[in-house]
Amino acid sequence: MKENGRKCYKCGYSPAPLHRFPKPGRTNIMRCELWAKYCFPDDSWWLPEFQNELHSRHLMLCTKHFKRSSFLDNFGKRLIRSAAPDEECDKEMDNLTTSIADDQSNAFIKKEPEAEVRVQMTDPEDMAIPDTSNSRENFSSSDYEQSLECELPKPLAFNEFAKKRKLEDFHNESLAVTLRDINIQLHVLTNQLDDCFDNFGKYISSMLRSMPMQNALELQPKIVALITSVGVSNNECRISQSHENCS
After folding, report:
1. H/E stretch holding 18
2. Which of 73, 79, 118, 228 has the fewest CB within 10 Å, making it most exposed?
3. Which superkingdom is the protein from (predicted)?
4. What pTM was estimated for this model as a whole?
5. How far is CA 138 from CA 109, 133, 142, 144, 187, in A?
C-alpha cells in the first residue's frame, strides 16, 4: 500500500517505477546538483543541505524523466550511478501528450442534434427562380478555373507536415520499444516457474496505467497477440518433445 501511494514529484504519475533523490556525498556532488536543479531551479539547489532535505523527504521521479541510456535494465527499474533527469525527455513527452490530447478531444466532440426541418406546402407560383449567377455559363474559362482554385483546400505547410510526421514517428518508435521490452521479459519468464507470470502481469498492468490512454489502447491487442504467439510456440515444443520421448 505504501508503494502504491507514492508518486512522481515532477508529473504526479503513480503507480510507476520511481527513483528516489540521491543522498549527497563526496562522489555524487554533480549528480545531486542536477537532480535538485531539475525540480527546483529557483531554489538553493547547489547547497548540500537543500539536497539532503530532498533525500530525507523521500521525493521521487518516475522513469519517463530519464533517457533510456540511464538504466541498467530494459524495464526502467534500475538507474546507473551517474544517472540524472533530462529536460529533453520532458519536451518530447509534452509534445506527444499534447498531440494525443488534441486527437482525443476532436474524437469525442458531441455533435448537436440537427433541428427538425418542417416541410411547408408552397404555391408553385411563389417559388423563387434559382440563382444561376455563379454557374459556369456566366464565367469565362479562366475565371471559372480561378474560382475553383480558391475553393480547394490548401495543403499543409512543410513545417506543419514535418512536425506531424515527427510526432507520428516518435509515437510508433515508443510503442515498438515498449513491445520489444515486453517480448524480452516474456521469453525470460517462459523458462522459469509459472508463478513468475504473476509478477509479469503486474508489470504489464503498471506499464499500461503509467502511459497515456491512446498508447495503452494501441498496445493492448499487440501484447495479447505477443503472449499468445509465445504460448503456442511453447506448447508445440512440449508436444514435439513428448513425441520424441515416446519414440
Report:
1. strand 18-20
2. 118
3. Eukaryota
4. 0.31
5. 41, 6, 12, 9, 73
